Amino acid sequence: MDSNSTLTWRLSEKSRDLGWIIRWAVICGITALSSLIISDARPGQVVFWLANPVGAISLLRLQRKHWCRMIIAIIASIWTAKLIYEMVFDLGRVDIDGVLSMATGAGLEASVRMIEILLTASLLGRVESLSRAVESVSVHGMLLLRCALMPSVLAAPLGGMVWAIDHQGYWQLMALNWFTGSAIGTVAALPLALAVCVKHPKLAWKDVSDPQALFILLGGMAVVLWTGTSFPQPFVLMVVPVVLMAPRTNLVTTLTANFFMAGSMAALIRYGVLILPSTSTWWGDTLFYLSVLATLLPGLFLAVMSEGQRKTLAVLEANESNARVLYFQTPAILHSIDADNRIVRVSRLWLHTLGYREDEVIGSQVTDFMEPTAARHFKDVVIPASLREGRCDKIEFQMLKRDGTLCDVVLSAIWEYDSSQNPKICLAVLQDVSEKKYLEARSHYAEHDPLTGLPNRVILQDRLKMLCVHHARHGGTFAVGFLDLDHFKEVNDTYGHDAGDLLLRELASRLQKCLRSEDTVCRLGGDEFVMLFALANSSSELPILARKILQAVTGPFIIGTSTNACSVVVSASLGISVFPESGSEPALLLTHADQAMYAAKHGGRNRFEIYRVNIPNKGHRLV
Q: What is the mean pLDDT of the chain?
């Protein structure tokens, strides 16, 4: 259970029985009596009032429908504490009139104290981030401002009026002293009360009674009392033990020390050890008590800050442990390497994908698990570049599985640097794209000729159909060229089919170089190629383009390796159909281009022919 849920549980409104209400009222009364005993409780003097946080928290732990009983019980306990104190320490008023006067004054003061407690409880209940008050300095400071100073400011005029009526004093001085005592007492007691609420009281007591914590607490209190009795203005020295204690012990112990320090200063003032400086103004004593209040704040805020740091470190440690588990179990291929490119961590999926055990991987060079060419590329290029840039993205390479097979992956990685900007660790995320590569290859070969890499009949039909639709709608013209090699069978018969395949690959390359970027060349199969020509305005440019193609085909082809290479010369026949003169449908354009190609062959080969009706058996020979 975290602090937020714990605090919500400890301060949650619950139905309590009468015994619980009486117990908390008695605790509040004892705290009130203690405040009177340790403070200078002469009429109108500053009383370090510690009971407000106790009363406020008791109300917050109670359902609102039972608040009336709790309010009556708290008023009665404070009234009783006030009467007991005045009857024991002010024996001058023991007659009936004196007792009645004391009872009336105590009742009025208890009523105002109850108003102050209600204000504190109301403001405390409105703090949304109450649990963070014991671990955040900013939240704690705002809490003290709202729940300690504001109720004291609002109740001080009434309290000053009650004291002025009861003790025949100046209202301004009485109100100021009321505010000062309530503010100091609440600042001292409220943080401790909240800290106890965060933990179960038994756990809080365990923190304080820990031998080391108890030794530090008693030693700190001894220093506080020594400085308070040895120096006329000891405030700076008194705060030193609490400041030193905050980072070395737990929150409850430090806040207990702060609480006792406030009580010690009140007692030292009461018994004349700490003497207020003489002043000529009615508000002059307030400056002295501001020093007392300032003495409580450094240790208080440092304790809260230290607690926040301890909780943050605990959360970080827990998160780091969880991160290790999540890293290993995450459904992604992950590995981390150090500055020497050694693997320091891998995920379970990394091991499963490549087939290794963790002890075979940790401490090894990451390139040991790459295909040799990829390993050299990583050492020479990828890793140096990633160190310069701090990251690398979408690097494709092959990793080596334990069984010797290869795995296609895509890697993205980012480097973490230390404070001196030296590379510390690199986290790499890999994606297994073996299946994707396989599917892409299948998809590519479904639309492309596996021998030459050119688009095949599927893409040809699709592009030809789109061209027909586009030009029928928007006007313009284009042409279809059908090319067939002359006597290609003789090349296969003479040099073999492997030589024929080499020739077709080279021919495909030459045709692509001849055509423009807006043109398309496809292989239908065998030695048949179809080209789509984009024409700017008319078909007048076709003869020039056709002669360029035929000239590229007739250049010698070098077949074979350098030791047994041979030169082969071939020619081709090219038939051309033009949209829309030769037809406006894809199938008709192909048919007419094929007819024109055969007309070129019948005309003597190594020539081209543009389709027209009743085409003769002759073509344009390449000269």
A: 85
What crossing angle do the helices spanning 211-230 and 235-245 adopt, rounded to 10°? Answer: 170
Instruction: At 313, list the tokens.
Output: 């470190």
Between CA 603 and CA 108 the distance in angstroms is 129
- Contact indicator for 538, 610 with CB cutoff of 8 Å: no
Report the 10 Å Cβ neighbour count for 40: 18
Closest CA to 47 of 1, 82, 18, 21: 82
Delimit the CATH 3.30.70.270 region(s) of the chain: 448-621
Q: Show the tokens assigned to 283.
A: 């508000």
- For the chain, what is the radius of gyration of the CA atoms? 47
**Is residue 29 exposed (0-12), middle (13-18) or buried (19+ Cβ within 10 Å)?**
buried
Checking if the pLDDT of 243 tops 50, the result is yes
Query: How do residues 7-36 score in pLDDT, each as one tens digit?
Result: 443 555 566 788 889 999 999 999 999 999
Q: 426, 415 in Cβ contact below 8 A?
A: yes
For the chain, the maximum distance between any two Cα atoms, rounded to a whole number of angstroms, is 147
Confidence of residue 3 (pLDDT cuts 50, 70, 90): very low
For residue 216 the two structure tokens come to 């530090």
Residue 558 pLDDT > 80, yes or no?
Answer: yes
pTM of structure: 0.55
pLDDT digits (tens, 9 = 90+) for 449-497: 888 989 988 889 989 999 999 999 988 899 999 999 998 988 888 888 8
Q: In a 10 Å sphere around its CB, with 0-12 CB exposed, 13-18 middle and 19+ buried, how is residue 598 labelled? A: middle
**Is domain 448-621 in CATH 3.30.70.270, yes or no?**
yes
Sheet arrangement for strand 607-610: 520-525, 528-535, 477-486, 571-579, 607-610, 620-621
Non-local (6+) Cβ contacts of 31 within 8 A are: 50, 51, 54, 189
Tokens of 208: 């304080």
Instruction: Reply yes or no on whether the pLDDT at 619 is more than 60.
Output: no
| Model confidence pLDDT, tens digit, residues 269-282 | 888 787 777 776 76
CB neighbour class for 607 (10 Å; exposed up to 12, middle 13-18, buried from 19) = buried
**CATH number of this structure's domain 330-438:** 3.30.450.20
Distance CA 54, CA 57 (A): 5
For residue 54, the Cα-to-chain-centroid distance in whole angstroms is 40
